[in-house]
Design a protein that fits this description.
115 residues; alpha+beta; 5 helices; elongated
Length: 115
């Protein structure tokens, strides 16, 4: 699977958006099926306008899309964008695993030279 590269600004937007628990929950709810903004607003103890703002932050980060369906705006999570974020995290994991492997190698070499 080829993961398209994210810019630093993309990464900043994604993780800034996901830093909020309500926005993470909105993404979870909308990955399964499209949900109207009205339905989302019913699920939270906040105003419709506040939910719209959360959706706007997620939309700006590319984590959800809004599409009109009659008078409603349906919000749907973007699985490809989630995969891009996962790819970014996988790259970081590979860097750290490589560093740990190098440390293990150095420690093993040090141990054999001192024995």
């Amino acid at each position: 699977m080829v993961v398209s590269e994210l810019t630093d600004e993309d990464v900043n937007r994604i993780f800034r958006a996901l830093a909020d628990a309500t926005r993470r929950d909105i993404v979870r709810r909308t990955l399964v099926a499209g949900v109207s903004v009205s339905q989302l607003a019913e699920a939270y103890d906040m105003s419709f306008a506040a939910v719209q703002k959360h959706v706007a932050v997620l939309e700006e980060a590319g984590l959800v899309t809004k599409q009109p369906r009659g008078r409603e705006r349906m919000v749907r999570g973007d699985l490809e964008r989630i995969r891009q974020a996962q790819g970014f995290l996988d790259q970081l994991e590979q860097i750290w695993r490589s560093r740990i492997d190098r440390i293990d190698t150095l420690l093993a070499q040090d141990e054999t030279t001192h024995n």
